[in-house]
Amino acid sequence: MKRRLRATAAALGSAGLIVALQLAPASPVAAADSKAFAFTSDFSTGSLSVVNLPTRTVTQDVESVCSDAALRYYNGALFVVSRFGCDNIQVIDPTSFGTLRQFSVMNGTNPQDITFLTANKAYVPRYGSASLLTVNPSSVNGFPQTQISLAGFADSDGIPEMAHSIRIGRYLFVACQRLTSFAASNPSLVVVIDTQTDQVVDVDPNTSGVQAIPLTLRNPVTSFEYDKVHHWLLIGCAGNFGALDGGIEAIDPYTFTAQGVRITETELGGDVNDIVWHTANHAYALVGDGSVNRLVTWNPATGLKTATLITVNGGFSLPDMEMNDRNELYVCKNPSPATGSDLPGLLVFSTATDALLAGPLNTGLPPVAVTFDHATDTPLSVGDGTPPAALALGAPWPNPARTSARVALRLGSTSQVQVAVTDVAGRTLRRLFDGPLGAGQQEMVWDLRDENGRGVPAGLYFVRAVVGGAASSRTVAVIR
């Protein structure tokens, strides 16, 4: 069992072309984080402790929770994903710390995460089920609840072992470990769900069946992290525990493609437990070799480890970490054995200097997971797909397309833009747009016709956007 498995519209030019101009909604200016919430447990008893960030004072045991849980914060409430043996979502008031409501996600399903679409709809990956669950997180019983089957991605045991999830724009990404008897015997996948239809997206229409994004590595165990420079999702894959067969892998959430391994467990020095991305050249990983755990820094640009910040005794002694908006990294520490000065608690590091600022902060029971009073591990943590400064081109939809295909284009500033459709040989079939566009989000609709108004045959095509020196392309399959 894994304890922490983390369009104003305007007609422009040729017939059939619609470019919808829609300024991206301004993100609300969030107040500085003020609290850290720590899930604490000895795996027979679970509790919640709270840290006042300015003073780093801890209030222990403010509410009882499941002994195996994950924490998510959204829309002014703390969500406790109660996992193995509990199978529910507990919603806690972050001010009074009382439980507002608690609802089942079905007995024996072992929920691992919750990712929010709106205040009234969220998705719950369940490790012990072949179906992804949708819930209403605002209702007292979580209803309405519906199930999205991922049985087509299961391995021989009939379940895909869903772990963590994240949403970028309209698409939900769900990591599936696909273990057999907890061994990394099968290729792991990231399944993509269109949240507008709650249908699984076929990311490779040229291959029979509905395809997910295949990972190079196996057993994705960490939460997704968003690389704001490359605009990739990073996820840590442990492979088989005790073997240096994993690492940190990237996928492109706009093209639905794997981008390869960024750093290996061999380089990191152990099984990956958790990751945090900070800058283009600075990221963190928690790794373990079965006897000790380490907090290390690594360079996403070079794929090399840069430093070891701490080493702690115990097989799972550094289980989780999160970064707040105060340039601080909070790390859960559970040494084994906990003796002398080597005690459990929260460690606080500066993300500017990597220096230890404080800790261990005494949380009562050992801390297993930590989050803050901002939307961590939810859509808001990435904006709605934080775009490149110059250009972001979204995945076409629907894909495959029968009558038309839409593609979202977001610009960081007013720019001269060229958008065209090409075939697999690189020949331009249709110029969708050539001219200036203002900053914000545009949505272009291709009517699946060429420059002469003829319908294109079934096949694979590319939508390519060029803005200044930046270019981006996305594939779209046409079916007839």
List the helices and strands and how they pair.
Elements: E1 9-11, E2 18-22, E3 35-41, E4 46-52, E5 57-65, E6 69-74, E7 77-82, E8 88-92, E9 99-104, E10 115-118, E11 121-124, E12 131-135, E13 146-149, E14 162-168, E15 171-176, E16 189-194, E17 199-200, E18 213-214, E19 225-227, E20 232-237, E21 247-252, E22 257-264, H1 265-268, E23 271-279, E24 282-288, E25 292-299, E26 304-313, E27 321-323, E28 328-333, E29 345-350, E30 356-361, E31 367-372, E32 391-393, E33 405-411, E34 415-423, E35 428-437, E36 440-446, E37 459-467, E38 470-478
Antiparallel strand pairs: 1-2, 2-36, 3-4, 3-31, 4-5, 6-7, 7-8, 8-9, 10-11, 11-12, 12-13, 14-15, 15-16, 16-17, 16-18, 19-20, 20-21, 21-22, 23-24, 24-25, 25-26, 27-28, 28-29, 29-30, 32-33, 33-36, 34-35, 34-37, 37-38
Q: Any overview of this molecule?
A:
This protein is mostly beta strands. It has 2 domains: 9-22 and 389-478, Immunoglobulin-like (Sandwich), CATH 2.60.40.4070; 35-382, Methylamine Dehydrogenase, Chain H (7 Propeller). It is 1% helix and 48% strand. It contains 1 helix and 38 strands. The chain has a 5-stranded antiparallel beta sheet, with no helix packed on it. Strands 14, 15, 16, 17 and 18 form a 5-stranded antiparallel beta sheet that branches. The protein starts with 8 loop residues before the first strand and ends with a strand. The model is unreliable at 1-31 and 377-389 (pLDDT under 50).
